[in-house]
Write a structure and sequence with these properties.
The complex is a heterodimer of chains A (359) and B (364). By secondary structure, chain A is of the alpha+beta class. Chain A contains 10 helices and 12 strands. Classes of the chains: A alpha+beta (359), B mainly alpha (364).
Amino acid sequence: MTNLFDAFSGTAPSLSGPLPDPSTDAGWSGDHPKRVGFFTDTSVCIGCKACEVACKEWNLVPDDGTDASDLYRLTGMSYDNTGDLGASSWRHVAFIEDVRPHGTATPAHGGQVGGQQTGFLPDGLPAVHGGGNGHTPRDAATAPPDGGTVDLLALLPDGGAHGQQTPDDERDVRWLMSSDVCKHCTHAGCLDVCPTGALFRTEYGTVVVQDDICNGCGYCVPSCPYGVIDVRESDGGAHKCTLCYDRLGEGLEPACAKACPTNSIQFGDLDELQAAADARLAELHGRGVQEARLYGRDPDDGVGGDGAFFLLLDEPEVYGLPPDPIVTTRDLPEMWRNAALTAVGLGAAVVAAFWGGRK
Amino acid sequence: MTGHDANTELPERFGHAEGRANDRGSEKRRGRGRKGEQLQVPEAEFRSYYGRPIIKAPVWKNPDVPLYLFLGGLAATSAGLGALGGATDRPTLRRTGRFAAAGGAIGGTVFLIHDLHRPARFLHMLRVFKPTSPLSVGTWILSPFATFAAATAAAEVAEPVLRRRGATGLARLLRRAGNASGAASAVIGPALGTYTAVLFSNTAVPTWHEAHRHLPIVFAGSAAAAGGGMGLVGASVRDNVPAARLAVAGAAVELAAGEVMERQLGLLGDVYQKGRAHTLMRASKACLAAGAVGTVLGRKKRWSAALSGLALMAGSALTRFGVFDAGIASANDPAHIVVPQRERLEQRRSTMDQDVAPPDRTFA
């Protein structure tokens, strides 16, 4: 925020809209480093989760502790057992097993076919009709009816006699993998609403939590349109990806990008990454991969573009990303106006209640 | 997180229902309530990542935060009733208003600090003033309000003690100081009663954010019902007319604005039609209506005025709990994110085709 009171005017560029240099907007002097970011090209992601591990190792991020009732912490929905981003998961590899009846897949997989959306929730393994042994076909994402453990063998065709079989003549299977991360928004909701100043905009244009300032009020958590930041139960503080702020200062690339074996996670100056992403998109489209699209690349979107953006092969919501996120503070000037007017009305109502003196 | 409960469970469709082998075309939106419950909204098709929530639900604690909203609203209007009650020679209303303002503000502050996940650092709230953070603005509203309200209540207690001991000069000084700080808290009060609406609506929680035109009015009505209700409980029949008027008006506004909000939310309003939020809102409406009718009919009897006041306060508190629960349920429902945002994208696309300026908020 260059000017606190601009925030009330509704025209301040710092609340929404394109913003070429968020660091200067946040008060850094003009000679700060260029804005950096991630370009995550999911078309070459192999779902190895090296990024998750490297991030945990470098940043000393503890066990994410989700669902402690389950010893192995299996989500039971796909090979993704991290589930989502959170206070102790700063990289999260989404894994989608896209299974559909043979013939319904199109070049624009997941797009419109005959005017009808072909997309559906992938069913996991294996959506095969059991070999006449009477049990209902069930996929691994189906919770057992009695709430007990999933009998994985029973999920296999022929009751597990042959191991897994995929009759390719019946189904088309596609795996989508994407390493999700904090988007380091141009207009970051978490940063806007933080009441202590613990969240701040770095000289690299990234958004970082200062753990020694954060008092765990939790306001950033529901203000993130992507559901990235969260409060860690063990220490009460809000945590998220720092884009390896400490490594940047030493001229190193973030741990996840360093560890990525396929260069799916690319780190660099944001303008260069955007050019690389545009080129990659054109290349894929040229090769007939019409479903490829960039997500978070557009500086005109609801958060002013992301510092970490993606090349996806299906609609964003299939990866657990909001299709059209808008930073909540875009509407804040109007909200303050409404609340101020209502406050005046409330004060007038109290005075009016005394109207006419004593009866 | 702490304080989560039934509403934070993942939607039922997270675990796929049985018999979906033929449901290959699309994910159908399913009702989540008890069996046989009527669907309140038309089925909408949407895709998601295994039905998981997209945004994170607030980690604010229940009942800390809804109780703070209630107490803040109670204190907000009580301060005004206390100040004007003093100015118009209504001693019992003055006393009630002043004590309720101080009690509400101090109690609310305690709940707010307890809600922090690092409560020892509550003073960090005062490091900065940020207009973009309703919580920061609210801190700077609550802190002076609580200070003035507490000083006023202290003067209210100390003044008769000093007078009894013969220190009339000091007592007179104290009364003037109490009146001044009481007036200050009364002026700040309305801001305390409405900023909490911005606190909720300035989040990515769809049911809260899209109600940002309604929530301030609902919360202001709720604050008036609570403060007026408290006045009815504490003030004598001779003094309780202003409290009765404020309480009835507040209840009427809260009922009407709440109804309009639930309707205009459209798809996003479904969280008010099921689960605990539904129960809480229904109970709130019953309490508010009963309290308002009781006030109109029974203001002139001490016991019926007090009972009506209690009902109005209960209604006000239940509204806060209901809105809180609805927000948690909304955040946990991926449909609340995907469906409106898809509609928004489609509308923008179609209007862009016609070369018209894109509407960005014309959904829901």
